[in-house]
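pasting for the record
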Amino acid sequence: MKMNYKYMRLQGRELASNTMYAKGVFSMVWSLIHEDRMEEEDADLYREIDKWFVEYLPFPEPCMRKEKVVCFFKTENSEEMMKMIRPALWLLEKYNQPYYLVYTNTPGEIVYEDKYQVAVKVEDMVIDQIPDDFVTYDPATLDLREKDPE
């Protein structure tokens, strides 16, 4: 089954302190550079990648104002962006930084949009507890099992 998605985001496991949302690929690589965890040759490579994005990818106004937003690439126009970001992904892999490619049609409330991307308002994080009667699977058989009767 083929699924079509409108938006995609490259993100890591670490949360950004301003949004409490997973850091995006640009922040992840810049963190490696600022923390002196990247060899200078690799840092120079990333600076060239970033320079291309600064030139060709508009910088969303909400990001400039440091609003609580995250950005997603539009999949319809992401081919060139992905081609240019691949070396940055290689750098993340080289420095053992896990990242995820997230696809969605419903990223949230869009507060900025251009040809290549959208910026989405980040809502306050809500953390729910797993209910005591949560249904799980038996790992041996993959059969559903319910909470043990007390």
